[in-house]
User: Fold this.
Amino acid sequence: MENTIRFYGAMWCGDTRRARNWFDKHQIPYEWVDVEKDEAAAELVKSLNNGFRSIPTIVFADGSRLAEPSTARLEEHIRKLGLVTEAVAAPLPVIRPHTSPPESPAAP
Assistant:
């Protein structure tokens, strides 16, 4: 089985840029296909998405695919495929116990 992830999109699309940034940040290699420059790719995307040119469309080596995924959905699928194992979400904030301010000395 080929290990290539094919990433179909267009750089004017904010969802495409967001998903590509996520892949780049997590150093997950992919083959970029610009549907604005490749008419056959644009037609493939439409055939995969019931006639809609939904971008980004990401096709994984196992044959699974995502169309216009949220960052959470993208991360979930990548984890399911075992392509990342470390925690990739933003770290949770540290919540410190509430402490009262120091009492001021009594006025004379």
